[in-house]
Amino acid sequence: MKNDTLLVHAGRDPQAHAGMVNTPVFRTSTVIFPTLASYQDRKSHGDKFVRYGRHGTPTTYAFEEAVASLEGGYKTAAVPNGLAAIVASLTAYARPGAHLLMPDSVYTPARRFCEGRLASWGVRTEFYAPRIGAGIAGRLTPDTVAVYCESPGSQTFEVQDIPAIAAAAHARGIPVIADNTWATPYFLRPFELGVDVSIHAATKYIGGHSDLMMGVITANETHWDAIHKAVDDLGYSVSPDDCYQGLRGLRTLGVRLRQQMGNAVEVARWLERQPQVAAVNYPALESHPDHALWRRDFGGAASLFAVELRPEWGGRVQALVDSLTLFGIGSSWGGYESLVNLVQAGASRTATAWTPAGPVLRLHVGMEDPQDLIADLKQGFSAAAS
Ligand SMILES: *Cc1c(COP(=O)(O)O)cnc(C)c1O
């Protein structure tokens, strides 16, 4: 089945729920059993057994099943937020003496978890150049427990050659974990590229309305037990209300992404032509150094990219941001509305330098009319220049 059909049908079983189109919200902690034997007999109930609320309810399972089928993975675990998905997936492989490979472009809280908590557990993290590709083979050691990818890189948008990285890692029996939040399950089929564990901040496009915090971890059959156990050990669970919102977001993921990608390309192309702009870092643009790689592996592009302004804008960038009226100033992205934020990605790098021409803005393009967004940017540039 194609993605658009899956978005409509995955995780739904109306006849199991009195004909209701959407799987209802099942709230519970305790579940009552008719006999002690039926309570103890976990095996015969299969995957959808609900014995205690922390492990999930029919609403949780419907959401997890929908994500697993979109991702093309074996099973999915819903967790409280995107960072929890990162923490659980890395915890699954953490042991004293372990070596972990992380891209230098990684989401900063993931870096902090590695440098702090994981280091205290005896895990040594090595940060690698995101465009390393097959060269990752030279970094693998007998203690390497996982290679982590995030493509494109948080804030800097380098696209990683995941198939090449996975081939090298798999040759040594090492799993690949990938944060695919930007691409969403709609624009990337991670397991077809060789990823073993795929994570998303469902907070972003899956939720899609800036009102949900959730994460998902999907694994192939080989790695599911390790992931499931880590999620269990960490005590993560997600409310059925949030899973309901996640399912609701999924139903419109395709139309939202197509619309937002179209808008983002239009805004990015306009920005590229402005004299105030040194570069637009957006893999969907032909000018991006990884455009061909993006085209090969992705089915589309999220509406999130970075704009490098010319150096002389260093003193005016604050005025520019403050004068925008349609771009909200705030964290996160993936909702229906446009956002702007200042990027300081170079600051946290340890393995590679990232030296933009001038100040860098990250734009999230929403579903507004792109011509209105362009007009807003245009008036922002003139207001800040005067
Ligand atoms: C936002 C984000 C996360 C964290 O998600 P939260 O739900 O905010 O915890 C993880 N990875 C990437 C790439 C993100 O953009």
From TrEMBL:
Keywords: Lyase, Pyridoxal phosphate. It catalyses: L,L-cystathionine + H2O = L-homocysteine + pyruvate + NH4(+); an S-substituted L-cysteine + H2O = a thiol + pyruvate + NH4(+). PROSITE patterns: CYS_MET_METAB_PP (PS00868). The keyword Transmembrane helix does not apply. InterPro entries: Cys/Met-Metab_PyrdxlP-dep_enz, Cys_b_lyase_bac, Cys_met_metab_PP, PyrdxlP-dep_Trfase, PyrdxlP-dep_Trfase_major, PyrdxlP-dep_Trfase_small. GO terms for molecular function: cysteine-S-conjugate beta-lyase activity; pyridoxal phosphate binding. Pathway: Amino-acid biosynthesis; L-methionine biosynthesis via de novo pathway; L-homocysteine from L-cystathionine: step 1/1. SUPFAM superfamilies: PLP-dependent transferases. Pfam families: Cys_Met_Meta_PP. The modification N6-(pyridoxal phosphate)lysine is found at K204. Its cofactor is pyridoxal 5'-phosphate. It comes from the Bacteria. One of its GO terms (biological process) is L-cysteine catabolic process to pyruvate. Belongs to the trans-sulfuration enzymes family. NCBIfam families: cysta_beta_ly_B. This is Cystathionine beta-lyase. It comes from Achromobacter aloeverae. The gene is metC.
